[in-house]
Amino acid sequence: MRLYTFTITPNNRKVEAFVRHYGLPVEVHHVSFKDRETHTPEYLAINPMGRVPALVDGDFRLWESNAILAYLATVFPQTRALPTDARGRADVDRWLHWQSCHLTPAMAALKAAEERDTSTLEPLLGILDEQLQGREYLLGSLTVVDFAIAAYLMTKLGRQLDYSATPRLAAWLARMGELEGFAATRVKGPAHGA
For the chain, which terminus, N or C, has the lower number of CB atoms within 10 Å? Predict the structure, then answer.
């Protein structure tokens, strides 16, 4: 099994962090954008979108980060990161779609804005904070949902947000940042002064 990735982006980092956290037998290949690797015919046969992440498992090619997370959790059930009952799986699917349809666009809009207006994002942070009431992780135990959502809030922009009104969310982010997979995928930028 081989994962094509570029750690610095949240969609790539969440999958790579998952693989590294659980020590899964997945070869991690960092693509070369300089060499336009994702535009080669060989790579486009893996992912016609020409993007990462992508996973190759024998003759199976899978792209889209949340689909990859769910697949890995299914193939490696020892992770216990994906419920097997219908309601548990539906709950995971709900939060994966929430991340894709609500959190990601709100973060992208905030990144693109000239002035930081967090009014769209703040209710989403409140929803996460409420979800964490009485829970260590978003669904109680650690699941693919935690990896999918945390990766977005661990971006440079996410680290600059004010979490004072969402203390449970702040504590969860700190816990997620300490997981081996997220620690191993932390991208260190160049040093700037003291």
Answer: C
